[in-house]
Design goal:
The complex is a heterodimer of chains A (246) and B (486). Chain A is of the alpha/beta class and 246 residues long. Chain A contains 13 helices and 8 strands. Chain A is globular. The two termini of chain A are 24 Å apart. In chain B, the strands form 3 sheets. Chain B has a 6-stranded parallel β-sheet, sandwiched between helices. Classes of the chains: A alpha/beta (246), B alpha/beta (486). At the A-B interface, α1, α2, β2, α3 and α4 of A face α1, α15, α18, α19 and α20 of B. The complex binds iron/sulfur cluster. Iron/sulfur cluster (SF4) binds next to α14 and α16 of chain B.
């Protein structure tokens, strides 16, 4: 039986890291997954939900549920925070017992973050990748605490040939992105980001692996600002290193 | 007298954080978190999680049956010879206390560590009435000398170095103090001992109030709190109504959680149980004991189901220690004596979003607080509800967000929710950004994104996945499952 995955590409990945999405398609297909892309999808509404605008979040959730409700199979996304929104917050937007609430619960049950999809649904940790570099891993908050993915990304990294995984001090400390937080309280965001950059630099790694677009924007930007030679990469880029974005 | 609270400007406060604050805070919080982690591991993670759940259930049961347990507590305290007063708000609490002080012609009151008295601004009110109030918790004593409030709910002066404290003692007490912990403690103790003996009133808070026996429980590490409740002739305890717990069995669970989470101890050095004044002239202790039960908005919090768990808090401070925002700004930025995650959810409800509406946004929603909280308060869920209260209003308050922002959200949602507009936007942004882009990044952007670029470049907009998907030869799967609709 073929496994089918509907891509949920998310705004930030689409706008800033399209290469990650292309690589994700290539990797899933190599693993035998039938990939589909519901083209009408837009934002899941997370920025509105997290800022308190429930009415707007609800409108976007309704639209999202309509688009993905017409599809079948799994829904897979390279962002933990967007999956957390769908899985845990969509159902809160509708009164229990309503048709929308049922739809939201159905969608929640079939939506997976990429690393959890690989490890738990496909039961794969070794994707045959080779990346002979020293890598450290930053744990994105919503992936870690929203979806309880503490080990999955690291299991995938450990299985990469040649890769040396070095621990990051304060691995589970927020990088200071926080969506709108980064512009509402820029001084605090900066201070948190700089702590994170210092911690990354202290590991002597070549690359820091991250699983969420927002954190990558923040950390990669911070590393660049600091004049560091360390690269921030989405985990998917590491799992597909040495291959063209199909 | 009433005290008018100014709007809390969290951003401005964060801009005024002294440069050395974050490092000082992080050093101290790391120590507490480290000690805690050792004990939690020794306890066994599974048992610890079970204990947290038990703590949560006990506290939730207590606050959802609060009237029952408060009446029970009141009856028990009265039976034991104590006097119970109910204070609807901060002003009433201050008035009750000032009345008691006036009746006993109090000139000097000594105070044990208490967040409730900070909450009602008691020191200020007593001093305005001509009564000297002396903080006796070492940390509180130091910040009082410095003329500021507590920077942390458990360790008020933890951000100050020994050198700073020595300089402060020299300046305010006129003593030559070496920058050495034992010496400094000894100096403070000597100063305080003199005062305990001449104090006319002792004031305390209460970590818990046991309903069964009307027992006020205080947890400290110095013993000065106990001097406040035993040496002066009158003892007044100011206790939030949320502190009530059903019985001693509940208490043992909470004490285990509290000491480990707060300071990484199995049990604090002093756990004191006060069940009324002495019953016979032969017993020592204060002749009178008063208990002021403080509401000050707590009943209102209980009325909002999404927020009521705010009141489960046992003020252990662990969420402050683990919070990355707190660790980078310290306590004063919050503009309220209770700071950090628990302070944010408490203050924005007690003060209202018009005054404290900035606070629910002072978080990245990272969830570290939820994970550490010994009574499992869903802090980020409460933050999300409070953000909603600010943005849209709810049953308890109208929206406080400016109209322009709310309008912006509406327009934004339409743009992001309409496939055609969304795609058009992606294309437009790619063109409009051209003058700002330098090798894939935008080092400087106009407002409001200059708030991002002040500390790191912004990545260039690069959306081309949709086009790529359409152009690629169908590999394995179908292309899009749905053609875009008009
Ligand atoms: S919210 Fe939880 S972690 Fe924070 S002070 Fe209260 S009990 Fe402790």
């Amino acid at each position: 039986m073929t496994i089918k995955a509907q891509l949920f590409i998310t705004c930030l990945a689409e706008q800033f890291f399209p290469d990650v999405l292309k690589r994700m398609v290539g990797l899933l297909e190599r693993l035998g997954v039938q990939v589909e892309f519901p083209e009408e999808q837009t934002c899941c509404g997370q920025p509105f939900f997290n800022s308190g605008y429930r009415n707007q979040a609800r409108e976007l959730a309704v639209k999202w549920l309509k688009v993905f409700g017409r599809t079948d199979g799994f829904i897979v996304s390279p962002s933990g925070s967007c999956v957390d929104t769908v899985r845990h917050h969509f159902p809160e937007l509708f009164p229990p017992g309503s048709a929308e609430h049922r739809q939201a619960e159905d969608a929640a049950a079939r939506t997976f973050e990429f690393t959890q999809f690989l490890v738990h649904q496909l039961k794969v940790t070794d994707v045959g990748a080779r990346f002979p570099r020293k890598v450290t891993y930053h744990s994105s908050c919503h992936l870690l605490r929203g979806l309880s993915a503490r080990e999955e990304p690291k299991a995938l990294l450990r299985a990469v040939q040649g890769l040396v995984l070095v621990p990051l001090p304060g691995e589970e400390t927020c990088c200071g992105f926080g969506g709108s937080f980064s512009v509402i309280y820029p001084e605090v965001s900066k201070s948190m980001m700089e702590s994170k950059v210092r911690a990354i630099e202290s590991t002597g790694a070549d690359v820091v692996a991250v699983c969420d677009a927002g954190c990558i924007m923040n950390i990669a930007g911070g590393l660049r600002q600091a004049g560091s030679s360390i690269r921030a990469m989405h985990l998917i880029e590491i799992l597909t290193a040495g291959r063209e974005a199909s | 007298m009433s005290q008018v609270q100014a709007t809390i400007d969290f951003r401005r406060n964060t801009q005024e954080v002294p440069q050395q604050m974050p490092a000082a805070v992080q050093k101290a919080t790391a120590k507490f978190l480290g000690n805690r982690a050792v004990l939690v591991e020794a306890f066994g993670n599974e048992s610890w999680q079970a204990l947290r759940q038990a703590g949560h259930d006990i506290r939730l049961h207590a606050i959802t049956h609060i009237e029952h347990y408060l009446e029970k507590a009141e009856a028990a305290v009265t039976r034991a010879g104590g006097q119970v007063h109910w204070a609807r708000d901060a002003e009433e609490a201050r008035r009750i206390l000032l009345d008691i002080a006036a009746r006993h012609r109090v000139k000097l009151a000594v105070k044990g560590k208490s967040m409730a008295t900070e909450e009602i601004g008691l020191n200020h009110a007593m001093e305005a009435a001509g009564i000297r109030v002396l903080e006796t918790d070492l940390g509180e004593y130091i910040v009082q000398l410095k003329g500021v409030g507590p920077a942390h709910i458990v360790v008020p002066a933890f951000h100050l170095s020994k050198e700073e404290i020595a300089a402060l003692f020299h300046e305010k007490l006129g003593v030559n103090a070496p920058a050495e912990a034992e010496q400094l403690t000894r100096i403070a103790r000597m100063k305080l001992r003199e005062e305990f003996l001449s104090a006319d009133m002792g004031i305390s808070g209460g970590n818990f109030l046991v309903a069964d026996t009307g027992t006020i429980v205080t947890v400290t590490n110095e013993g000065n709190g106990r001097m406040c409740t035993t040496v002066p002739p009158v003892h007044v305890a100011v206790v939030g109504i949320d502190k009530v717990v059903p019985d001693w069995e509940s208490l043992t669970v909470l004490l285990k959680l509290l000491a480990r989470s707060a300071t990484g101890q199995k049990l604090s050095c002093y756990t004191q149980f006060i069940s009324g004044p002495p019953r016979s002239p032969a017993e020592t202790g204060p002749r009178q004991m008063h208990l002021i039960l403080l509401d000050n908005g707590r009943s209102r919090i209980l009325k909002t189901p999404e927020c009521r768990e705010t009141l489960l808090c046992i003020r252990c401070g662990a969420c402050l220690n683990t919070c990355p925002v707190y660790n980078n700004v310290g306590g004063y930025a919050y503009g309220y004596p209770i700071s950090g995650p628990t302070g944010v959810i408490f203050a924005s409800q007690i003060l209202g979003t018009r005054i404290a509406g900035a606070l629910p946004f002072a978080s990245t929603l990272c969830g570290a607080c939820n994970e550490i909280c010994p009574v499992k308060i869903p802090i980020t869920q409460i933050l999300l509800h409070l953000r909603r209260r600010v943005a849209e209003g709810d049953e308890s308050e109208d929206a406080a967000a400016p109209y322009a922002l709310r309008l912006g959200a509406q327009v934004g949602a339409v743009a992001l929710g309409t496939t055609g507009l969304y795609r058009l936007g992606s294309e437009l942004l790619k063109r409009l950004q051209a003058p700002f882009v330098r090798s894939g990044w935008m080092p400087r952007l106009p407002a409001p994104l200059n708030r991002w670029t002040m500390s790191r470049p912004f990545p260039a907009f690069a959306a081309d996945f949709r086009q790529w998907w359409r152009d690629r030869p169908a590999a394995g799967g179908k292309r899009g499952t749905h053609e875009p609709s008009a």
